[in-house]
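Postdoc handover notes: sequence design on the structure in folder B. Input tokens:
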């Protein structure tokens, strides 16, 4: 059988989450770039895979998926290797809660309002909207506070082993800490900084590091 295919650019945090999931199993896969900067995600070939013009999309021997939550859970259930979801109901619910925080609150504020403005716009020669950055900081800070609180005493976000929750948050953190705002927000978060140190050291993080800038 052919290796599964991930479609999307390496710079996308959600593409990286899917790649991290495959790397952590581990499972071989093919990565097919979708150059979003040139608008390829809005062209016919990609729209046939995802009519909403989002990345990543996924193909496992003809079975096609989009939406990162669906893709990562499919990989975890069907690919051999370690289980990336807790078995028991309460830690699994905690994992899903943290993924929900990433999707609903962390990404729109950490990435859209802070990282895109602080890192992407200068790279493109576009003006930086300081008001957007300022607007994103309170919710970004609240997200970090909640991640740290919900971790309780575990090394990772849910207990002492990696779950999908870690693989959703880590790509965001990679970019956030490159900004002065993110660096400042992380300084008082000793437990979350220890988690980030563990995540940075994982082979899956090194093998999926995006080419950015």
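Designed sequence:
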């Amino acid at each position: 059988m052919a290796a599964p295919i991930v479609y999307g650019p390496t710079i996308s945090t959600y593409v990286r989450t899917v790649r991290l999931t495959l790397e952590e199993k581990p499972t071989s896969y093919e990565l097919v770039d979708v150059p979003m900067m040139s608008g390829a995600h809005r062209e016919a070939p990609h729209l046939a895979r995802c009519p909403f013009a989002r990345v990543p999309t996924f193909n496992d021997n003809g079975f096609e998926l989009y939406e990162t939550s669906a893709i990562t859970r499919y990989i975890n259930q069907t690919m051999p290797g370690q289980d990336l979801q807790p078995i028991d109901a309460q830690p699994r619910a905690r994992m899903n809660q943290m993924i929900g925080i990433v999707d609903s609150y962390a990404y729109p504020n950490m990435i859209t309002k802070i990282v895109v403005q602080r890192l992407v716009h200068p790279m493109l020669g576009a003006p930086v909207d300081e008001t957007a950055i300022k607007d994103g900081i309170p919710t970004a800070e609240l997200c970090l506070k909640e991640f740290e609180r919900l971790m309780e005493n575990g090394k990772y976000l849910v207990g002492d082993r990696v779950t999908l929750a870690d693989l959703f948050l880590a790509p965001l953190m990679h970019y956030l800490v490159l900004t002065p705002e993110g660096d400042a927000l992380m300084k008082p978060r000793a437990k979350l900084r220890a988690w980030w140190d563990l995540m940075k050291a994982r082979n899956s993080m090194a093998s999926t590091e995006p080419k950015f800038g």
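Context for whoever picks this up: Strands lie at 5-7, 30-32, 57-60, 63-66. Don't rerun without checking with the PI first.
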